[in-house]
Amino acid sequence: MSEAVEIVEVGPRDGLQNEPGAISVAQKVALIEACVAAGLPSIEVGAFVSPKWVPQMADTDRVMAACGPYPDVKATVLIPNLRGLEALAEARTTARCEVGEVAVFVAASEGFSKANLNATRAETLERAGQVSVVAKSMGLAVRGYISCVTDCPFDGPIAPSEVAHTARELNRLGADTLSLGDTIGKGTPERVSAMLDGVLQDWDASRVAGHFHDTTGRALENVAVSLDAGLRTFDASVGGLGGCPYAPGAPGNLATEALVPFLHARGFATGVDEVKLAAAAKLARQIREDARANA
């Protein structure tokens, strides 16, 4: 029997959040439905963040009300603070899509934290801890994201010890799982391996995911070394949705339709139907084209 690898589909949130043109609730729901049909077991369906800063996620409550239920899918939303958690609690009262997990977001670098989260690393960790406590009281699991695990667009290369420290803090604060993000896609297999050596001192590999960007074309190489380190969960974005804002025109998130056959060829089972995944990727690319045409 093949060993299983879990794919966390981030396209409907991470992939769409920076698109400049309007994307309707119906389009978002159609994309989620296509991902569910392909057999993706875990899907980020949106985020409860400030609509001023991330307008594409302003209708996550309406998306949750319009899609689902998906009894066999783990649905996740990104939550930056307690205000976002309050918005999720309100949305759950009318939702068809049952969210069972929230994601909190911190950075391994001070520069990225201040530029993108408008807070120091210590402040973002404090917020994450607050969200974790309340989320668990609501029966929700908590996923911790760490960005810039190899390189930061502001601070340059990041020492593995800094990532390990941030991961250790998220563990202490109650995160159930951890996603390690190579945010600008500059990670190499050697540096990813060194980073994982530090993180896995405090985290079991079964609780850790790799989140790689393909900006320099090395995402699948980084998946390979992560598999060697014992990781069995990876984030990906259908259709390659989500570019890298610090490398205009370059690929961003690793495409789900590239990751799945890569894993299948190595003998791992994902439960994902490649034909239906291709249809979901086609839809994702069409949504992106429409959004950019309307920008």
How would you sum up this structure, described in words?
There is one protein chain. The protein has about 300 residues and is an alpha/beta fold. The protein has a single domain (about 5-295), classed as TIM Barrel. It contains 11 helices and 10 strands. The protein has helices at about 10-15, 25-35, 60-65, 80-90, 110-115, 120-135, 160-170, 190-200, 220-230, 255-265, 275-295; strands at about 5-10, 40-45, 75-80, 100-105, 140-145, 150, 155, 175-180, 210, 235. An 8-stranded parallel barrel has the order 1-2-3-4-5-8-9-10, surrounded by 8 helices. A two-stranded antiparallel ribbon has the order 6-7. Strand 2, helix 3 (about 60-65) and strand 3 form a beta-alpha-beta unit. The protein is globular. The protein starts with 5 loop residues before the first strand and ends with a helix. The relative contact order is 0.17.
